[in-house]
Amino acid sequence: MSSVVRETLTAYVAGRITADHLVAVVTAAYYRDGGAGRREALRPMVDVIERASPGVVELAGRPEGAGFDVRPAERPFPEQCEPDLRRAIEAYLGREPAGGSVPRARPSLVARLASMIKRLFSPSA
Q1: Which residue has the higher pLDDT, 61 or 12?
Q2: Dist. CA 23–CA 48, nearest whole Å
Q3: Would the pLDDT of 50 be above 50?
Q4: pLDDT tens digits, residue range 17-40?
Q5: Quick one: average pLDDT of 80-108?
Q6: What dihedral angle (degrees, nearest 10) is formed by the CA atoms of 34, 53, 77, 16?
Q7: b/e sequence 62-98, b meaning 16+ C-beta within 10 Å
Q8: Residue 96 — very low, low, confident or very high, per pLDDT cuts 50/70/90?
Q9: Class of residue 57 by CB neighbours under 10 A (exposed 0-12, middle 13-18, buried 19+)
Q10: Closest Cα to residue 31, out of 45, 17, 11?
Q11: pLDDT at residue 86 above 60?
């Protein structure tokens, strides 16, 4: 995922930007940068956005060729849907769904393998 999108997600969780700004950045990245697994990473957030407010962004044809131009629509993102959006973002960022939580550390491959080997050789209960 691009650093701009990650920075935007982090800024939203920290309360530095509005949901409307976040929606514009996420949907633009989703529709413009669809390759290389980015769509799958953004899909949970886009699902919330589309479910909450289908007309929050506009897709328009681009005069220079194929693809879409993504623009914020006049409708604001509904406040009552922000908790769902926040949960999707926090899940992506690997955070606990609490206000000022810290990112969870993901165990390394070696640590996961060691854990599996320990379970193999430990007596079953």
Answers
A1: 12
A2: 10
A3: yes
A4: 998 889 888 888 887 755 556 778
A5: 71
A6: -30
A7: eeeeeeeebebeeeebeeebbebbbebbbebeebeee
A8: very low
A9: buried
A10: 45
A11: yes
Handedness of CA 31, 36, 42, 43 (dihedral sign): positive
| 3-class SS of residue 15 | coil
Closest to 44 measured CA to CA, from 68, 76, 9: 9
Does 102 have pLDDT greater than 60? no
- List Cβ neighbours of 62 (8 Å cut-off, separation of 6 or more): 68, 69
Task: Map 30-96 to HEC letters.
Answer: HHHCCCCCHHHHHHHHHHHHHHHCCCCEEEEEECCEEEEEEEECCCCCCHHHHHHHHHHHHHHHCCC
